[in-house]
Amino acid sequence: MTAVHSPTAADSGASASANFRSTAREGLAVSPERVSTVVTAVLHAVHSAIREHDVTYLEFQAAKRWLMDLGEGGEWPLFLDVFVEHVVEEVAARTQDGTKGSILGPYYLPDQVSLPSVCTLPRRPDEQGDPLTFSGRVTDLAGRPLAGAELDIWHADAEGYYSGFAPGIPAGNLRGVVTTDAGGRFEITTVQPAPYQIPTDGPTGRLIDAAGWHPWRPAHLHLVVRAPGHRPITTQLYFAGGEYVDSDVAEAVKPELVLTPSGQRVSYDFVLEPA
Ligand code: MBD
Ligand code: FE
After folding, report:
1. Of 60, 151, 205, 273, which is least packed with CB atoms within 10 Å of its CB?
2. Atom 5 of ligand 1 has which residue's CA nearest to it?
3. In the 8-state DSSP scheme, what is residue 230?
4. Tens of pLDDT along 89-109?
5. Which residues pair with 270 in a beta bridge?
6. How many Å lie between the centroid of ligand 1 and the Cα of residue 259?
7. d(CA 151, CA 114)
8. pTM of the model
9. Ligand lying nearest the CA atom of residue 104
10. Which of 20, 78, 81 to mutate to test the pocket of ligand 1 (most atoms within 8 A of CB)?
């Protein structure tokens, strides 16, 4: 170990895989009919791609090697959240009212520090980046304020790195669970996150490069907003005019979630539906 090292895909991939194993719910009972229906559909989609595009043995072997690398590098969470989760969210959103949702992504960590309605997110003494104040309200569908709602917020730093996944950043940095006041209000001081680049040194980055795509997500704030008796919402907020807002590699931007900053302030009001 050297004193200073730059984040690698293998570091963040391993952390994201370990985090997923320790936090995601297990033991979902799925009927054989359901498994057969969905897996058959997935396999048929692969088979038709092979037929349609005359995929060769050499290409099949390259794909097999790449999939093995994806697993060994711990990048299944990254790959699936970037290229697949947005469609799972789209399906979930069919039955969701109130604030629009977006994908969770691979970098959520539970059990972060509790903070009052007016607060500053934990940050390093020399935290880089422009100041950002994010304020707003949480209400129900009728516009009644939800006091004591929780905003579980996390975001990348000014270099695009997440605490808990890139080395050298203190645990809990730029993460917190903020509780709204009696009027359902909050005001969070933090720093402006940078766009996020898929690590270029790992299998997901190599695929993106091989396909000639770009590896960027626009700058974003992640949130899970919860209130007793209400359906929690997982979402992300973006900044109008920011780079990659119109070309997110993870296809997770919705127009309703793009904020227009006024100086160094942005605001957003969350609306939760009953549970
Ligand atoms: C991210 O920061 C993110 O939010 C998603 C969805 C995927 C990869 C990195
Ligand atoms: Fe993110």
Report:
1. 60
2. 105
3. B
4. 999 999 999 999 999 999 999
5. 138
6. 18
7. 10
8. 0.94
9. 1
10. 81
